[in-house]
Structure formats: structure tokens, C-alpha cells
Amino acid sequence: MDYALIVIASILIILGIVGCILPVLPGPPLSFGGLLILHYTRWGAISGELLLWLAIAAALATILDYVLPVWATKKFGGTKRGVWGATIGLIVGMFFFPPIGIIIGPFLGAFFGEISSKQDQSKALRSALGSFIGFLLGTGLKFAVSGVITYYYVMELAVR
Description:
single chain, 82% helix, mainly alpha
């Protein structure tokens, strides 16, 4: 049974890292789920306190991933269309122009979203930059948290 749990946990860890890029997968919670499953096998000896802190970090990273792009877009004078454009641009860029589309897609999507809301080009460019910065901050935060969780996962397996 432990081997089946390790396979499931490993899949969750991998999906957690992938979920840091794909907006449809909650990366840090998936990574944390993998670590939590490992905890209940004979290889897992992670302290409850560490699990609690990693759960809090995963929850905060997930929440901030939704808040940061909106905050940065509004901070740079953007609208909801810019945020939606960045999200659509990420999805389109990811599927049609990987891997560069993951970086360029949100910026172009936010720009065209702002243009569609009848903003002039300079304001749309500024808003797109804000959306892009917020996207990068949220993605970076998710990668950091999922990376730390993955580190503890690998160390637990390597030590045992």
C-alpha cells in the first residue's frame, strides 16, 4: 500500500509544479497534498508543525496568485478586461506558442484586453505591464512554495 501512496504522492508533486504554470491546476495545494500523503507512509516523518506551516504557505500562495495580478493591474491603472486578457493570453500562449507564450501571452492578452475597453495605447501598455508583473509575482510565489514542498518531499524519500 505504501508504494501506491508514493506513486500517488509523486504524481501530485509533479502536478503541483505543473500547476504553477497552468492556471487550471492549483499548484501549491497539489504539492502539499503529495507531501501529506507521503507523511502517512513509512517513509514520511515530517513534523506536524512543518506540515502546518507548509499548508499555510500553500494556501497563501494560492490566494495571492489570484490577488496579485488584479492588484498590480489596478495599481498600474488597468481594468478587469486587462486581467481577463492576461488570463486568456496565458492559456493561448501556453498551448500555441510554448514555452515563450507563457511569458508573452499574459502581456499581450492584457494589452488587447485594455485596448478593447477603449483605453489609449500608452495606458493599455502600462496596464498590461502591471498585469504582467502581477502574473510573474504570483507565478514566482507558487513556484517558490511548491519548490520548498518538493524539496521536503525529496529529502524525506532520500533519507529513508
